[in-house]
Design goal:
8 strands, single chain, binds zinc ion
Length: 304
């Protein structure tokens, strides 16, 4: 009898130590950028375990495919990419991971740009060899809260392709998230109302969707073209334009040349601000809503 009790207790201890043993394994999702990690966590809830291949402080255009990326992708059930060439390295990483579940065309490969109206599509053919990193148009739409409903719907569809039995849960989680976002949106619109129509300059053009959403105007970029460094001649023109248009703010990415932005701002009588170009790009911007909140606060205060 005593021996039997010991066995029962041992079994109970094992069960307590391995809580997930009975539950279904979580879906392993790897996203190319942290914004999509945050949105996938909102949609997937307890059913997913999400990792990002890049950090928010990085320039996604220039991300280097490393063995650590391939290790993450090797055990992934789903890979979620931004598309429109923001993460043009995604195929190299996926193919290097030797995981047929997530290669282009596989069920577990999700492109969230589907249905997103792309801005700044070049009217002439732009070759990447010319150095332009936006050959298919501007890919920086993920932090426009007005596009989150489309993006999260693409995530629901992608996860449900791999786990159809959980579609209803994903859809319900998304609905709750979108409802929360709508609440925040009216607050954000209110905060931005007094500065509508204000003109700003950006270093790299990664805010066009956001600025358009909230009625702000981008009058110039410090880069000559997307991904092409600022040339002295171009900067002279930008400074002149900023003075004429009374531009108060230059928006800078944390990975960019903040010192140069500060110098240009000083010459033009403006100020440079480091923005949350992605989730995790600046302190406090550690999820999707927090990142947008940071940008709304920075712009509404900086433009006043
Ligand atoms: Zn870009």
């Amino acid at each position: 009898m005593r021996r039997f009790l010991v066995l029962v207790m041992a079994a109970a201890i094992v069960a307590a130590l391995v809580p997930g043993a009975q539950a279904a394994r979580k879906l392993r999702v790897v996203t190319t950028i942290p914004d999509l990690k945050s949105l996938t966590e909102a949609v997937g809830g307890d059913l997913v375990e999400v990792d990002s291949l890049t950090r928010g402080t990085q320039n996604f255009h220039e991300a280097e495919v490393r063995p650590s990326m391939m290790l993450k992708l090797r055990r992934a059930d789903v890979m979620i990419e931004n598309g429109v060439e923001l993460d043009a390295w995604a195929d190299v990483a996926a193919n290097g991971a030797n995981n047929p579940k997530i290669v282009r065309g596989a069920v577990g490969r999700v492109d969230i740009s589907r249905g997103v109206p792309i801005l700044e599509v070049p009217s002439i053919r732009v070759d990447r060899s010319m150095g332009d990193v936006h050959p298919l148009g501007n890919p920086h739409f993920s932090l426009d809260p007005g596009l989150a409903p489309v993006i999260t719907q693409n995530i629901v569809d992608g996860l449900a392709r791999v786990e159809p039995e959980n579609r209803a849960v994903f859809a319900k989680n998304r609905e709750a998230f979108v409802a929360k976002l709508e609440q925040e949106m009216s607050r954000w619109q209110q905060m931005m109302a007094p500065v509508r129509g204000a003109k700003v300059v950006v270093f790299h053009p990664d805010f066009i969707y956001f600025l358009t959403r909230f009625g702000l105007v981008q009058v110039a970029t410090l880069e000559d073209r997307p991904g092409i460094p600022a040339s002295p001649g171009h900067l002279v023109n930008v400074i002149k334009l900023m003075k004429e248009e009374k531009v108060k703010m230059i928006l800078v990415e944390p990975w960019n040349d903040v010192k140069l932005a500060n110098r240009v701002a000083e010459e033009a009588g403006a100020k440079a601000f480091v923005m949350a170009t992605a989730v995790g790009a600046v302190k406090g911007a550690d999820n999707y809503i927090a990142a947008i909140d940071f940008n709304i606060k920075t712009l509404s205060e900086g433009l006043r």
